[in-house]
Design brief:
With about 300 residues, the chain is an alpha/beta fold. It folds into 2 domains: about 170 residues, NAD(P)-binding Rossmann-like Domain (Rossmann fold, 3-Layer(aba) Sandwich), CATH 3.40.50.720; about 130 residues, N-(1-d-carboxylethyl)-l-norvaline Dehydrogenase, domain 2, CATH 1.10.1040. The protein is built from 11 helices and 11 strands. β10, α5 and β11 form a beta-alpha-beta unit. α6 crosses α9. It binds ketopantoate (KPL). Ketopantoate binds next to α6.
Length: about 300
C-alpha cells in the first residue's frame, strides 16, 4: 500500500518504520516541508531501525491509499484540511491522537474518516525514538464512508500489532479520554511520573465520579468504580511513564488539554453538569501554558 504518515513525532516514526518493514511504500509529511525525513527507532527489544524516507511529495500524497495522522489533537484539523484537496476522495484518513473533538472539526470531509487510539508508548530521547512499550491500537469508522474499511485493521495489525477494529469506536475513545482526563493533568499538578499518582486516591475518586456523570449522559454506561479500576490499571502498566501532557509542559509546548479535559467540560456544559475538580485541573494546565516563556513556547 502507498501510505502517507502526517506527523513524524514519536508515534509517527514507529508507524513509518513498521509499515516500511512490512513492505508498504511510505512517506512522511512534516509541517515545515522537507524532502526527506529520517526515522531512528529503538524498539522495546533493543532493535534499531534507521531509515530515510521521502517527505512532503504531493504526487505521492495524491496516490496515497491511506493518510495516517499522528499529529497532536490541536494540529490535526488544520493539517488535514490543508491536504484534503490533494487526497483522492477514496483515501481513508485515520486519526490517531489523544483526546476528542477533532471529528466535529472535520465534519463534511469528503474522504472516509476513521478514528483510532493507541496504547503504544514511545518517547524521544535526543535524536532517537524509544518505543518503550508495545500496545493495542483500536480503530473504527468516524463517518458514513468509512464503515467498510475494517480490512484496514488487518493490514495495520500485520505491521504493528495489535490492531483491533470496533464498529463503535466511540466507546474506546471515551474510555481513553477518561484515563487521560485523570492521569495527564494530575501528573502536571504533581510534576510526577504516572505511577506516583497512587498517592492521590481522593483526587482520582473525584475525577472518576465527575467523568461517570458525563459519560452516563453520553450513553457510555460506566460506574465511577469501574472507571477507577481502568485508571489504576493504566497507572500500574505505565508507572514509569512521564505523561505526554507533562512532557509538553516541561518542554513548554501547547498541551492537548483543550481536547482532553476541555472536551469533557464542553460536553458537561451542554448537559448542564458542573465538574469542579476537572475544571480546577483544566484551569491549572491553561495557567501553566499561559506562563510559558514566549521565546521558547511552540506547538511542536
Ligand atoms: O496516554 C497517555 C499519555 O501520557 O498521554 C497515558 C495513558 C497517560 C500514558 O502515559
Amino acid at each position: 500500500m502507498k501510505i502517507t504518515v502526517l506527523g513524524c513525532g514519536a508515534i509517527g516514526q514507529i508507524w513509518l518504520a513498521a509499515l516500511a518493514r512490512q513492505g508498504h511504500e511510505v512517506q512522511g509529511w512534516l509541517r515545515v516541508p522537507q524532502p526527506y525525513c529520517s526515522v531512528n527507532v529503538i524498539d522495546y527489544q533493543g532493535k534499531v531501525s534507521n531509515h530515510t524516507f521521502i517527505a512532503n511529495d504531493p504526487l505521492f500524497l495524491a496516490d496515497s491509499q491511506l493518510l495516517l495522522v499522528t499529529l497532536k489533537a490541536p494540529q490535526v484539523s488544520p493539517a488535514v484540511r490543508n491536504l484534503q484537496s490533494v487526497l483522492s476522495d477514496d483515501c481513508p484518513v485515520l486519526l490517531l491522537h489523544n483526546g476528542m473533538g477533532t471529528l466535529d472539526e472535520l465534519k463534511g470531509l469528503s474522504q472516509p474518516l476513521l478514528r483510532g487510539i493507541t496504547t503504544h508508548a514511545a518517547m524521544r530521547d535526543g535524536t532517537v525514538i524509544k518505543h518503550v512499550a508495545s500496545g493495542i491500537t483500536h480503530i473504527g469508522p468516524a463517518n458514513r464512508k468509512s464503515a467498510a474499511w475494517s480490512d484496514l485493521a488487518d493490514i495495520l495489525h500485520a505491521a504493528l500489532p495489535d490492531v483491533a477494529w470496533h464498529d463503535n469506536i466511540g466507546a474506546a475513545c471515551w474510555r481513553k479520554l477518561a484515563v487521560n482526563c485523570v492521569i495527564n493533568p494530575l501528573t502536571v499538578e504533581h510534576d510526577c511520573q504516572n505511577g506516583a499518582l497512587r498517592a492521590w486516591p481522593q483526587q482520582i475518586d473525584l475525577l472518576c465520579q465527575e467523568l461517570s456523570w458525563v459519560m452516563e449522559r453520553e450513553g457510555q454506561h460506566i460506574t465511577a468504580d469501574s472507571l477507577r479500576d481502568i485508571v489504576y490499571n493504566v497507572i500500574e502498566t505505565t508507572a514509569a511513564n512521564t505523561s505526554s501532557m507533562l512532557q509538553d509542559v516541561r518542554a513548554q509546548r501547547l498541551t492537548e488539554i483543550d481536547y482532553i479535559t476541555g472536551f469533557l467540560l464542553r460536553r458537561a456544559r451542554a448537559q448542564g453538569i458542573a465538574l469542579p475538580e476537572n475544571t480546577r485541573l483544566y484551569e491549572l494546565v491553561k495557567r501553566k501554558e499561559s506562563h510559558y516563556d514566549r521565546e521558547h513556547a511552540s506547538t511542536g
